[in-house]
Amino acid sequence: MKATDRNIYHIFTLGYCGAPQNGRDETKTTNRITKVLEISDYLKDLNINTILFGPLNESTSHGYDTIDYKKLDHRLGTNEDLKEVIEQLKKDGFDILFDCVFNHVGRDHFAFQDLKQNRENSRYKDWFNNVNFWGNNSYNDGFSYDNWAGHDELVKLNLWNPEVRDYLKDILNYWIEEYDIDGVRMDAANVMDRGFLSELADMAHSKKDDFLMIGEIVGGNYEELVQNGHLDSFTDYECYKGLYSSLNSKNYFEIAHSIRRLFDHNGGLVHGIPAANFVDNHDVERVASTLRDKKLLEPLYILFYTMPGFPTIYYGSEQALEGRKEWGSDQNLRPPYENINFDQANELYRLIKKLGKLRKEYPVLKDGYYEELFIQPEQYGFKRILDGKEAVILLNMNEEDAVVNVNLYNSYEDILNNQDIEINGSVNIPAMSGRILINKGQTNGR
Length: 446
What we know:
The protein has 446 residues and is α/β, with parallel strands linked by helices. It folds into 3 domains: 3-106 and 158-363, TIM Barrel; 107-157, Oligo-1,6-glucosidase, domain 2; 367-445, Immunoglobulin-like, CATH 2.60.40. The protein contains 13 helices and 19 strands. It starts with 7 loop residues before the first strand and ends in a 7-residue tail after the last strand.
């Protein structure tokens, strides 16, 4: 499956499964991972074809402080439990992606424990960045080291060390062979060594040609990191911000600028590189909370599903689930399965289901190049063009219908609203919504 064919559902596994936040609070192994199977039919109905699992490996807390890369976290079950779940999901038609946390490990990782015990004599002292036995850290170990983003519990690996590189490549190879995964989201890719990323990607692609390497890139040069790291895609934080911010400020110019800057077929910085688009995830507040008016969810998701790249839905957000950070904690963003009403009659669910179906049926919406049609503060139009076929996307965030002058003169099928319309230089765009138009002379645009 190529990247743009993907319609991803992102599950923060420990949260979804209702695992204790502290791994030390529960010593026994508990099979919670099978809870994912409860929504398999629901996800198929939503036109999801790929599931991204948040961190799965043995850890102390949130999953990003890895203890053992080859062991399912005991709060989720055993390796056999995970294998059975993945085998069933594969039978149900889903591809599987893992969150891949190779930039750092937790302090309970065996190599760091050896470093603590043996200090200068540890054979693993070169496995970590800038270990300094004249320094100290917040745990008072009597030495310092590089961490991730100021968090001493996340110990930065030395990715220039060939032994560390081989160790991590072996882990990814194990995941491919043991679980038949189809790709990874590379956590913290923007702060990782490009040489190591390229080695890892080349190894994975040698195993599976269409293996998907998504780099988490919070900031930096998308194009440079994707190309030099041999990645296939990137998390588009620039457009993530623009998607909700432009609606809150009643200003489509913001998101249109970002899309044009990145994806325009005449000089876009990452034109031709598929972006992993998202409107929220496990690290940021739910979009239903960040939007000032929840009625704007409709034009937001229409744009989200028709802009260049491919969509990633964070679990529960298709139900307009709200969630904000409190006191610096992300727990409200990561609720358990039992706290979510997976309602297939929900209005937003039905919209997202339809948009996923349209992406599947109309290749131009997935692979067409981007061309801006017009831009106004509260209305926005663009085309996706593929092999001479066009889809026209029209958006309106105003509370009233808007009539907009456009350079279009033809008969169109509005595949979003299931109606035929004639356009003779101007078009009506429904309030707080949009249109997806296919020229009726294009064999339905397929």
